[in-house]
Structure formats: C-alpha cells, structure tokens
Specification:
By secondary structure, this protein is mostly helical. The chain is built from four helices and no strands.
Length: about 140
C-alpha cells in the first residue's frame, strides 16, 4: 500500500491529512472548524454527517478517565476538599474537552484509516493500478 499504517499513525498524532500528510485538517483562524476536504489531495475530511461523533466520544472518555476520576479519587482519599474537588471537576469538564478537540478529530481519522487503510484515496489508486496491470 502506498500509505502505511505507520504513516497513518504519525499523521494522526500530528494533526495532518492521513492521505497526503499535509497540514490541512483545520481552517486558518478558525481553530474548531475542520476543512471539508484537504486542499493538497482533495480527500474529504468530513466524510458524512455525524462523523465527528466518534471524536466527541474520545474526548468524553479521556476527560472522564484521565481527569474526572482522579479528581474524584483524590476527594475520596481526603487529599482534596469538597470545594476544591468541585471547582477542579467543573473547570476540567470545560477546559479539557476544549484542549482535546483538535487532537481528537485527528485521532478519530487516524483510528478509522488505521483499520481501513484501503479507504484512503492514495491506496485506492494503487489497488486500481495493480488490478489494471494484472489484466
């Protein structure tokens, strides 16, 4: 395959297009707006309506498991007071998802194409050319 799983992971962790590796996922000046397609390779980034829901699930899971559960455990252990734990949980429930939005969108694309690399346009062209060569 033209784009390997290793390249997909590297590109996903660096917020790059999984197909061509260009820095094209988000619109300039609009940090929470994903471009509909990559200007470098014309791959659709927004695949379908609701394709962002997987990334929101990632954000929710990471926020709960890596932030809110530790705050709860510290409160139950008596390390944090009720007021400090409440404020920390409230602020974290707002700030952590905002900070994770961009990486989570990229991670969701990375997960999709890691398991289905043949869906990338670069890999589809290679499969099509291999089939043409065999006929």
């Amino acid at each position: 395959m033209k784009v390997t799983r290793g390249q997909i992971v590297t590109r996903g962790l660096t917020n790059r297009c999984p197909n061509c590796g260009g820095k094209t996922l988000f619109q300039v000046g609009k940090p929470f707006r994903v471009k509909p397609e990559c200007p470098g390779c014309a791959m659709k980034i927004e695949r379908d309506e609701g394709s962002y829901l997987g990334s929101l699930s990632l954000i929710y899971g990471v926020t709960v498991v890596l932030y809110l559960v530790p705050v709860l455990l510290l409160y139950l252990a008596g390390v944090l007071s009720e007021m400090v734990a409440s404020v920390a949980a409230g602020v974290g429930a707002i700030v952590v998802p905002i900070l994770l939005y961009r990486p989570a969108r990229s991670w969701w694309l990375m997960n999709y194409y890691f398991f289905l690399p043949h869906h990338l346009p670069a890999n589809q062209r290679e499969v099509a050319s291999d089939e043409d060569a065999n006929t």
